[in-house]
Every structure is written in C-alpha cells, then in structure tokens.
Design a protein that fits this description.
- The protein is α/β, with parallel strands linked by helices.
- The chain is built from 11 helices and 16 strands.
C-alpha cells in the first residue's frame, strides 16, 4: 500500500471514493537527475478504472512498478522530454515485456525527436521487439483521444508547452463532462416506473409512459457535472502555459527541483523552486499540488520544500516513491 497524504475529506467525497470511477496516481520515481537510496528517477503511473498510463520511464522504472504493485498490463507511455533520467528505463521495460510474451501493441508518445530517439532505443539489446510499438510525436495543442480500445471514451489527454528546452511538453488528463444527478424521488412521484425509463431520462432521452404521457429529463436530472483534471508538468520553469493547462485542476503535479536558496540555479537549468510551483498552483486555482523531481539534497527530507510551498499554497505535499494519491470527484 502506498503512502497516502492526508487531505480533508467530506462524507460525500468519501462516498465518491467508493462508488465513483477510481482515479489514482502512484509515484514511482521522484528524484531529479539521478537516483538516490530513497528515491528513483522520474516515473509515475496513473490508474483510471483499471487502465494504467505511465508518464516518464526513468532507469529502474520496471522494478519500481513491481515494488509498488503497478500492473505491466499498460499500453501507453508518455514522455515530456528526452533527458536520460526521464526515458532510459523504457529499454529494460520493453525487454521485460517481450520476455513475458506480450503480444499487445504499445504506444509511446513524446515531443519532437521521439520517433528517432525511441526508435533507436527499441533496437538496443535485441534483434527485434516481439510486439508492435507505435511511436507518436506530439506538440502543444495535440489532443490524444480514443484509441479504438474503448478505454478512452470518457477522457482526453491534452498536450501543453513547458519551458525546459528541446520542445518539452506536459500532459493533462481531462475527463469529459458527466451526466447530471438523477432524482429518483421526483421520478417516483411522477409515476415513472423504476427501470429502463429511468436510464433513458438520465441520458437526456425523452420517454413515454404507459398512459401516453411524454416526459423529458427537465426536472428529473440536474445540470451536467465536470470531470476530473490531473496535470503533470514534467521538468519546467513556471510559465503561463502550465497555468493555463492547470486551470481548476483537481491535482497538479509540478516539478520542484530546488528550494528558494537556489532559485538562480533553477532558472539557469530550466527548473522550478517549490515556491514557484506553489505560485503556479495558486494562479491556476488548482485544488491540490504535489511537488516532485526533487534534488538529491532533499532526498532524505523535503520539509523545507513543503514549508516554502505552503506559505503560498496550503494544499501541498512533496511526493515520495511509492506514494499513492486518490483523485475523487468534487461533487
């Protein structure tokens, strides 16, 4: 069981964790540039209704997946850029999946240069990859939609610009709007028998009762409700593009390589401080912020980063390897 940070949970939100479609994030690697004893390099798994999406795949990611119970039954890996600590682990992962007899296709997404670099990586250590691999280059504004599997019918992944050089990008998983709440008491009072007619009304379809009365969803179904939004920046300076992508995010995962004492170094290297990440979360009106990609100097304790960030944005935690965070609906 991964570590779960405490965020205030209302009774309604607690119920949503039980009955609503599950959405959670497991941090597989939270260290910047190099692994430490406590932290591996960048990778996280997002699990939604049994589907696993992997974002980044630093060296050793496959072992972290086994350690923290993340399924190898995944079909999509998303890369924000191609510094070694963010993608070298894909070579070993693909090799292992091949040895396990995988035959299902794998899709790899990344910014400019992905086809050449990842294509070369797939050839290392083996004559051929034993299952199909599709490499797709993305750019800011790209929307990754339904793949034909039926799993992505209710959400899209939006690609946005970040500031880390080399065409780096971030990813935002945005769920589609949900149906409004159905009021069973009003339906019973109107003489609508429980069953298929309720389902039709809930979907907005008109119905006809046995007595010939025609009814619409008006008065029985509330307004549509927003889906969830999870935003992953990868490495970046704080920038307007990230703020725009994270507007109202249920969960913003933002890098925080340095503390304020090294803000000049952060600027020189294309990274953010914890305070800067918190300022992005505040500007975006995000609900929660998780800091990741922390420098090795904070490997044992990142309390200084938490303190800095919470002075700006209270709902902040620093990720640790193995931490699991649930993302419930807000209504």
């Amino acid at each position: 069981m991964g570590l779960r940070p405490h965020f205030p949970t209302s009774p309604r939100r607690f119920l949503s964790l039980i009955f609503a479609p599950m959405l959670s994030v497991t941090f597989l690697g939270t260290s910047a540039a190099r692994p430490t004893v406590e932290r591996n390099v960048s990778a996280l798994a997002l699990v939604r209704e049994g589907e696993t999406l992997l974002f980044e795949c630093g060296e050793g990611t496959q072992r972290q997946m086994m350690r923290y119970g993340v399924s190898f039954a995944l079909s999509d890996i998303f890369f924000t850029h191609f510094h070694a600590d963010h993608f070298l682990g894909v070579i070993g992962l693909i090799r292992t999946l091949g040895l396990q007899g995988r035959v299902e296709p794998m899709r790899l997404y990344g910014p400019r240069g992905a086809k050449k670099l990842l294509g070369q990586a797939m050839q290392l250590g083996v004559e051929r990859v034993p299952f199909p691999i599709e490499i797709q280059e993305v750019k800011p504004g790209t929307v990754i939609r339904e793949t034909g599997s039926g799993k992505r019918e209710t959400y899209d992944i939006h690609v946005f610009a970040t500031e880390h050089g080399g065409g780096s990008v971030g990813y935002a998983l945005r769920e589609h709007e949900r149906l409004g709440r159905f009021d069973p008491e009003k339906a019973r009072a109107a003489g609508i028998p429980e069953g298929p007619l309720w389902g039709k009304l809930h979907k907005g379809e008109p119905i006809e009762l046995s007595n010939g009365q025609r009814l619409t969803a008006n008065g029985f179904v509330g307004p549509k409700r927003s889906g969830r939004l999870v935003v992953f920046t990868g490495d970046t300076r704080p920038c307007a593009a990230v703020v725009d992508a994270a507007k109202g995010a249920d969960l913003l995962i933002h890098e925080a390589t340095f503390g304020e004492e090294e803000k000049d170094r952060a600027k020189e290297t294309g990274h953010s401080t914890a305070r800067e990440a918190a300022q992005v979360a505040l500007a975006a009106n995000a609900k929660r912020l998780v800091l990741s990609h922390v420098s090795a100097r904070y490997s044992l304790s990142a309390e200084d980063l938490v303190k800095e960030a919470r002075e700006v944005f209270r709902e902040t935690v620093v990720a640790k390897d193995g931490m699991e965070i649930d993302v419930p609906f807000n209504d």
